[in-house]
Structure formats: structure tokens, C-alpha cells
């Protein structure tokens, strides 16, 4: 993995002494002579920042090592100074020893009296919120437009009387019918909707259905242990008299909930109440050097203070799952992670999909050759503490510490599941740039490099490129991120919130066949 003494000076970076590739810290030109560890490397190609350069001759069939981990093998002879990327790396699969629990180390917990705090919103049942929205959920796509109209009625001018309410949000979705029930897909949808309905960041909830859909509103509420009351209302369009009547009754229901929703006061609470969803999108060759390990350092701090870090995106730990199973607190926890990966093998095969192979165009352009290389960086977001539990998508998270929630790698789907599981804040790393936002839990975006941070400054919250610039160490950056998390949880707005993002990013996982 990334060595603690990695130097971020000069045009090349060696992540581990055992590596046979270096990382270009800046653009490199053909013929350029570079001094590294007392040797001279002559560049044989133009290489973009974040991409790999052979530090020595690598024969065909020999392993390519990055972070002292095999990310593939040479598909042909590669000379020192050559660009090493998808064109000359062959992806190979190999047996990995899960080593359940072998890397578990005790957590140096901070005493409760000394733990960091933030200004949270404490609900009557003791749950702690970081934001204060009223949410409208559609049981089916047929009610999606109606809930959007209800939410749109609550303009900033109309909400001015309720300054403590962050907004009224419509969580429209495209499923709820044309699906088998019971089925795994059906269960996941209901679990996701229920997770949002219970979320502490929602002071009140309105559920709207059509009336003839598979996902009946009454059955949804009953099956998930939800009940209507002062903070939970439900409407069925076919019973209410249609579109206009449902919108009017929906507006009235929310107006009824607004005074109580506004009657809140933030107070200092322990950081142990934080559940942080960890996400990455548009990753590049620097993501696994700066933003991801720095976020991992912040999560180690969070866990020491009693909080919860939620790693997801199961396809993006493929090939490095052993790094997590070796940190599993029990063999059962480690095996559950392997079981989810095995499920993905079957799922992608059955849907003519791809689980082990090519990364996206943006990842490739940013320097990542394949899924193994991407996974190495992605897993670093979770830090180094023991893996306490593994959860299915949108399953309520009831264990503190570092945990894993199964999800696709698609950003909005993964984050939707994390929020449904209870995440009250999201940290999102990116190298190429992302304009993602989320509600009701806000998203903090972390840039892996300074040029992108400057180019997309209106969207980025934290510049982890300072590590690459030699200004901050990974640990120092982790401390900065942790402090930023506490401020955000206390109400400080993220860039995506200031831009009004998050209304369209509710995307439950569509697992099954639409019929």
C-alpha cells in the first residue's frame, strides 16, 4: 500500500519500494531525462499527470506492481521510461487468501468526554440529524410528477416563515410497478423508501402513491414498520380525486408539518452520531494517492471518536477484497463480504454484464488502467480500522465503526443506498471532477489534484491536491477533512448545497427485470 514516507517532490512518485512503475506528478515529454533514486530514466513516450511510467524493464508476462500490489501483467516487453497503461497491461485473476482477521488491530478510542462534537439536531427519539428537510416519497413512478409539483409549491418565499427548515424535497423514482413481488428488487425498493422515511434528516414525510401499483402505500408502510401520524402522512391519488386534488392535499399535509419541523435547535453532540457514506466518482491516477487515503485518515479519526464510516461500491473493491477481509472482526463478517462478491459474479453473468474488467473512459484518461488499479485506490477511503459489519443495500446500519454496504459502483445508486442505511453525511472523492449533490444528507466533494480543484472550484469543497503539492501530508489532510466534516454536520453549507444540487440524485437500485 501507500508508504507513509512517500515523497511528493519532483516529476515522479514511487508509491512503494517494491513497485516497478512510477507515477507522473506532472506532464512528461519524450526524451526527457529524469533523475530518480540515483538513476536516470529517459522518457520513451509522452505521459500525462497521474499515469504510470516503467522504472525498469518489464518483460512480457511479468507482474506490474503498484502499491506493492499486482495490478496486471505486461502484455509485451516494456522498456524503462515507457508509458504503462491499458495498452500494455493484461488483466489477470488470481487466488487471494482472505486471511480473515489477520490485520485487525485494536482501535485507540478517544474517551467519550474528550470526543469531538458538532452542532446537531436531536430528534425526540434521540436520533441526530445534520439537516432538517421535509421529504415527499413516491411509492411508484406514476406519482413522481405529483410529488414534484407538491415540493415546487414550497418556494423560498413561502418557506421564509420557517427558517429552520432546509427545504421540501421530492424523492421521485422510476419503479414501484412492472416488477415481481415478492422479489429481491421489490424488497430493495421498499427498504430504500423506508430508510428515507426514517431518516433523521427528515423532520416530516409524505408518501404518495397511485393506487393500483405493485408497491401499495398501505402495504409499504405496514411491511416496513411505518405508521402515519403527525410526522408521517400518506396519500393515494386514485382515492384523493386525481392529480390536482392530490397536489392540494399534499401541500396541506406539509403545511401542517412545517411548524413542528421548524421548532428545532441545534446543540452540541458527540461525533459518534455521525455516519459518513464514502463515495468516489471520476477517479484518476491521483485519487489513490491523495483524496482517498486522506479521506481514509479522516475516517480513522471518526472511528476513534465513535462514529461510523460506510464504504460501498462492491464492484470497485473487486481484486482487493482481501485487504478488507483481513480486517474483518470475525470470519463471518469477512465471509459475508465474499458472499456479496460471489453474488455480483452471478448477477453480472446473468445480466450479460461485466464485473471484472475495463474501467470508464474518464478513469482511463486519468491514468487508471483496470478495475484492480481503481479498486486499490477506492478501498483506501475506508481507512485502516477493523471491518465491523457487512450490510446489504439500504439495510439499516446498527454497528459503529468501519462498515461495508453492498451497492453498485454507480454514484447516485450507491449514495441513495448509503443514505437509506442511515448516512447523515456523504464524502465524495473525485479526480476528474463531479457535480454530484445529495439530499437529505449533504455531500462534501474532495478533489484529488489542484488543477481540477481550481478549474471546478465552484463545485469542490476540499483540495486534497495539497498533498501532491507538498503542502500537506496525508495525515494532516485527514485532520482537515475531519474538521470540515464537523463544520458541515453543524450546518455549514457544502458547494453542492449552495448550487441547489441533490433533488434529482435519488436513484434506488433497479436490480430486476421490468415486466
Describe this structure in words.
The protein is an alpha/beta fold and 515 residues long. It has 3 domains: 12-90, Archaeosine Trna-guanine Transglycosylase, Chain: A, domain 4, CATH 2.30.130; 133-263, Rossmann fold; 272-339 and 375-499, Rossmann fold (3-Layer(aba) Sandwich), CATH 3.40.50. Helices cover 29% and strands 19% of the residues. The protein contains 15 helices and 23 strands. The protein has helices spanning 144-153, 184-197, 217-223, 237-240, 243-262, 291-304, 321-325, 331-350, 361-365, 371-379, 411-421, 450-455, 465-468, 474-489, 495-498, and strands at 12-13, 21-24, 33-36, 39-42, 52-54, 63-66, 69-74, 83-84, 89-90, 117-122, 128-129, 133-138, 167-171, 202-209, 232-236, 267-270, 275-280, 308-311, 387-391, 401-405, 425-430, 443-447, 462-463. The strands form 6 sheets. It has a 7-stranded parallel sheet with strand order 19-20-18-17-21-22-23, sandwiched between helices. A 4-stranded antiparallel sheet has the order 1-2-5-8, with no helix packed on it. The chain has a 4-stranded parallel sheet with strand order 13-12-14-15, sandwiched between helices. Belongs to the UxaA family. Keywords: Lyase. It comes from Paraburkholderia lacunae. GO terms for molecular function: lyase activity. This is Galactonate dehydratase.
Structure at a glance:
The chain has 15 helices and 23 strands. By secondary structure, the protein is of the alpha/beta class.
Oligomer: single chain
What is the domain total for the residues?
A: 3
Query: Strands of the biggest beta sheet: in what spatial order?
Result: 19-20-18-17-21-22-23
Number of strands: 23
CATH first level of the largest domain = Alpha Beta
What is the mean predicted local confidence, pLDDT?
Answer: 94
The secondary structure category is alpha/beta
Please give the CATH architecture of the largest domain: 3-Layer(aba) Sandwich
Strand residue content: 15-25%
Which topology of the largest domain does CATH recognise? Rossmann fold
Protein name: Galactonate dehydratase
InterPro entries: GD_AH_C, GD_AH_second, SAF, SAF_UxaA/GarD, UxaA_altronate/galactarate_dh
Keywords: Lyase
Domain SAF: 19-90
